[in-house]
Specification:
Chloramphenicol Acetyltransferase, acyltransferase activity, transferring groups other than amino-acyl groups, single chain, alpha/beta, 32% helix, signal, six-stranded mixed β-sheet, Plant_acyltransferase, transferase, 288 residues, globular, CAT-like_dom_sf, 8 helices
Length: 288
């Protein structure tokens, strides 16, 4: 019925009404027709996120799951500047905070896992489609999905690379792949996804041994909703990683204030112990 941003909008509206407002600041929008499949479905993107991969559910076969470790890593201003400084000058200007952090984590995680160089590594992440109404040659719908839309309005683009290239090429390679996949999301992309759902019977996203999922919830601010008795002590994911049954698959970007009072991004990550040791070393090298 709703995605995380739709839920956030609902909670904000309820909190505003609870504090005495006569109407929510952002009026809710129904308009479910915006994401309906066309009469003649015609997907026009590759949609690698829904690839049909043989043996896609053999996730546990590639990792020693008997000794998994979960750690959280903090990225403040200095860490993010250090990551950005490793990019080409042009990409330093074009890449967003999400682009650089996602590319850095994806590359470091791959190096830490040390897969075969020909293994396919995938980074899948959530992109909010609201407001993404870039004009295209095949889609005249310039309205896009309005901010008040509270249904499911997200895409799951995926960046794909051979492990060898991801590990050996500069960080800019990984960040560029992330940025390209993210920037592909538009109204036309969403329409293409709706068409694909009809043609293939609502397929689940691809889950292969080389996949890593990221979800940025730093702007959701579930910890800021005031229903009249003050702000909550905590608001956010109930688990440190995306899927408690398969924690090595996913991480969240969480808003966090460290012991020094610095605001930044906390990223919980789960890996086999040897891989976690290598991953932590790479994180420690950031400010060296």
């Amino acid at each position: 019925m709703a995605d995380a941003l739709g839920l956030m909008q609902f909670l904000v509206a309820v909190a505003e009404l609870a504090r005495g407002a006569t109407a929510p600041t952002v009026p809710p929008v129904w308009e479910r027709h915006l994401l309906q499949a066309r009469d003649v479905p015609r997907p026009c993107f590759a949609h690698r996120e829904y690839d049909e991969v043989p043996g896609a559910m053999s996730l546990g076969l590639s990792m020693p799951l008997d000794d998994m470790v979960t750690r959280s890593f903090f990225f403040g201003r200095e860490e993010l500047i250090a990551i950005r400084s490793r990019l080409t000058p042009d990409l330093q200007k074009r890449a967003t905070k999400f682009d650089i952090l996602a590319g850095w984590l994806w590359r470091c995680r791959t190096v830490a896992l040390a897969p075969d160089s020909d293994d396919e590594m995938r980074l899948i992440f959530i992109v909010n489609a609201r407001g993404r109404n870039k004009p295209t040659t095949n889609n005249n719908n310039s309205k896009g999905i309005p901010d008040g839309y509270y249904g499911n309005a997200f895409a799951l683009p995926v960046a794909v690379s051979k492990a060898g290239e991801l590990c050996e090429k500069p960080l800019s390679y990984a960040v560029e792949l992330v940025k390209k996949a993210k920037d592909e999301v538009s109204m036309e992309y969403m329409q293409s996804t709706a068409d694909l759902m009809v043609l293939r019977g609502r397929p689940l996203p691809c889950t292969t041994a080389g996949i890593y999922s990221l979800s940025d919830v730093t702007k959701a601010r579930f910890d800021s909703h005031d229903f009249g008795w003050g702000k909550p002590v905590y608001g956010g994911p109930a688990h440190a990683v995306g899927n408690p049954a398969m924690p090595w698959l996913a991480s969240f970007f969480l808003p966090f204030k460290n012991a020094d009072g610095e605001d930044g991004i906390l990223v919980p990550t789960s890996l086999p112990r040897p891989a976690m040791d290598r991953f932590a070393e790479l994180m420690a090298q950031l400010l060296v």
